[in-house]
Design a protein that fits this description.
Number of strands: 0
Shape: globular
Strand content: under 5%
CATH architecture: Orthogonal Bundle
Number of helices: 19
Distance between the termini: 37 Å
Largest sheet: none
CATH topology: Hydantoin permease
Order of helices and strands: HHHHHHHHHHHHHHHHHHH
CATH superfamily: Hydantoin permease
C-alpha cells in the first residue's frame, strides 16, 4: 500500500503552513469550481418559472442558504487543513468514512464523465456536422471525449497546483467572454432583460421553489468544499472566499442559462455564442467552463477512492479518469437523472461533518484522538437523510435531508453518553 501521508496534496494529513495558497489563488479555484453547466440548466428553469424580480430573489435567497452551508464547510476545511474524507474519519469513523467517500467519489466521477460528453457532443455536432443520438455516437465524437478526458484527468492528476493554473486561465476567459456574449444577446433582442423575463415566464415557480433549484444545482459539489478550502490561510478566509466565489460564480451561471433560454431558446451560453456567430469563442468557453468543474470533481474522486482503497490520490485519479472517460457517453444519455437523485444524498454528509466539528472541536485539533471504527448514528443519518430528501415532496430537499441527518447524529450521541 502506498505511503500517502506526505504527498504534495496532503491526502491523509493536514495541509501545512507552507502548503497554504494565496487568497487570490483560492478565490480563482473556488470560482472556477462553480462554472458548471448544470447551474445554467437551473438558470433556464428559473427563467421559465419566475419574472425578473423573482429570479433575483431566488438567487439571493438560495445563495444565502448555499453560502452558509458551503462557507461553513470551507471554514472547517481551512481551520483543520483536512480533506472531506479525513474529516469523515472523525465524524463517521475510520471505516464509516468509506460511505461518504464512496458517495462523493461516485457522484463526482459520474459528473466528470457527463461533463466530457457535454463538451464532445455539441462540438461534434457544430464543428463536424455529425449526427449524435442516444443510439449513435460517431467515432470522431469518441475521439473528442478521449482527448478531453486525457487533458482533464492530467490536471487533476497533478493536484492543486495544476487546478490553480487551470483556474487562472479559465476563470477570466469564461467570465469575460460569457458576459460579453450575454450583453450582446440582450442588446440584439427586441426587449430589455426585464421585459423578456415577463414575456417568457409562466409563473410556475415561487421564490422558495426557485431558491430550492439554486441550492440543488450546486449543493452536491459544494459538499466537497473542504477538499479545496483547506489550502486557505485560515478558517475565516476559507469561509469568505467560499461564500463570495460561490455566490458570484453560481449567479453568473444562472444568468448565462437564463439569457440563453429567453433569447435563443437554449440552456447554455454556448448556444448564445453560436447564435452570435462566435463559434470558436463558444468552444473555448464551453471547454474551459467544463474543465474547471471536471478537474475539481475528479480530484475529489481521487481523494475519496484513496481513503477507501489506500492507494495514492494520483493513482486513484487515473482510475477514476479512465472509468469516467470510457463511460462518458453512456453516462450522458442514461445517468443524469440518477446523478440528480444521488445529489440529494450528499448534503446529509456535509451536515454531519459540520455538527460533529462544532460539537467535538478539540478532537479536530489533535492527530492523536481515538477514532471509532464506525459511527453508526452518522451512517444511519446519511441513509435516512437521503431517503427523506428524495421522497419528501415538501420544502427544499437538501435541507430536509440535512435536518434528518443532524437529528440522527444527535440522538446517537445522546444514547452513547447514556450507555
Amino acid at each position: 500500500m502506498a505511503n500517502i501521508n506526505n504527498d504534495a496534496d496532503f491526502t491523509s494529513g493536514r495541509v501545512t503552513k507552507e502548503g497554504r495558497k494565496s487568497n487570490l489563488s483560492m478565490f480563482m479555484v473556488m470560482l472556477g469550481f462553480t462554472f458548471f453547466s448544470a447551474s445554467m440548466w437551473a438558470g433556464q428553469n428559473l427563467a421559465k418559472g419566475l419574472d425578473f424580480a423573482g429570479f433575483i430573489g431566488a438567487i439571493i435567497l438560495g445563495g444565502i442558504i448555499l453560502g452558509a452551508y458551503t462557507g461553513t464547510l470551507g471554514y472547517i476545511g481551512a481551520e483543520t487543513g483536512l480533506t472531506l474524507d479525513m474529516l469523515a474519519h472523525r465524524s463517521f469513523g475510520r471505516k464509516g468514512s468509506w460511505l461518504p467517500s464512496a458517495m462523493i467519489s461516485f457522484t463526482q466521477m459520474g459528473w466528470f464523465g457527463v461533463g466530457l460528453a457535454m463538451f464532445a457532443i455539441p462540438v461534434a455536432q457544430e464543428l463536424f456536422g455529425l449526427e449524435v443520438t442516444p443510439d449513435h455516437m460517431p467515432p470522431l465524437g469518441y475521439i473528442l471525449v478521449v482527448i478531453a478526458g486525457i487533458l482533464m484527468t492530467a490536471s487533476a492528476y497533478f493536484g492543486i497546483k495544476s487546478l490553480t493554473i487551470i483556474s487562472y486561465i479559465a476563470v477570466p476567459l469564461v467570465g469575460i467572454l460569457g458576459t460579453i456574449a450575454m450583453i450582446m444577446a440582450v442588446h440584439r433582442g427586441d426587449a430589455t432583460l426585464i421585459e423578456q423575463f415577463a414575456r417568457t415566464n409562466d409563473g410556475s415557480l415561487t421564490i422558495i421553489a426557485g431558491a430550492g433549484l439554486v441550492i440543488g444545482s450546486f449543493v452536491s459539489g459544494g459538499t466537497a468544499t473542504p477538499n479545496f478550502a483547506r489550502f486557505s490561510k485560515n478558517g475565516k478566509i476559507g469561509f469568505w472566499v467560499t461564500v463570495v466565489a460561490f455566490f458570484l460564480g453560481n449567479s453568473l451561471m444562472f444568468f448565462f442559462g437564463a439569457v440563453s433560454s429567453i433569447y435563443v431558446g437554449g440552456n447554455d451560453i454556448f448556444e448564445v455564442m453560436l447564435n452570435l456567430n462566435l463559434f470558436w469563442f463558444a468552444v473555448i468557453v464551453l471547454g474551459f467552463n467544463i474543465w474547471t468543474t471536471n478537474d475539481n470533481a475528479l480530484y475529489s474522486s481521487g481523494l475519496g477512492l484513496s481513503n477507501i482503497f489506500g492507494f495514492s490520490k494520483k493513482t486513484m485519479v487515473l482510475v477514476a479518469g479512465i472509468i469516467g472517460t470510457v463511460s462518458a457517453v453512456w453516462l450522458y444519455w442514461n445517468f443524469c437523472g440518477w446523478l440528480n437523485i444521488l445529489n440529494c444524498t450528499l448534503p446529509p454528509i456535509g451536515a454531519i461533518l459540520i455538527i460533529s466539528y462544532f460539537m467535538n472541536r478539540n478532537d479536530y485539533k489533535s492527530d492523536n484522538v481515538k477514532i471509532d471504527t464506525v459511527n453508526w448514528a452518522a451512517v444511519i443519518g446519511v441513509v435516512l437523510g437521503a431517503v427523506v430528501a428524495n421522497l419528501l415532496h415538501w420544502g427544499i430537499a437538501s435541507i430536509n435531508g440535512m435536518v434528518v441527518a443532524i437529528i440522527c447524529y444527535l440522538v446517537g450521541r445522546a444514547l452513547n453518553k447514556k450507555a
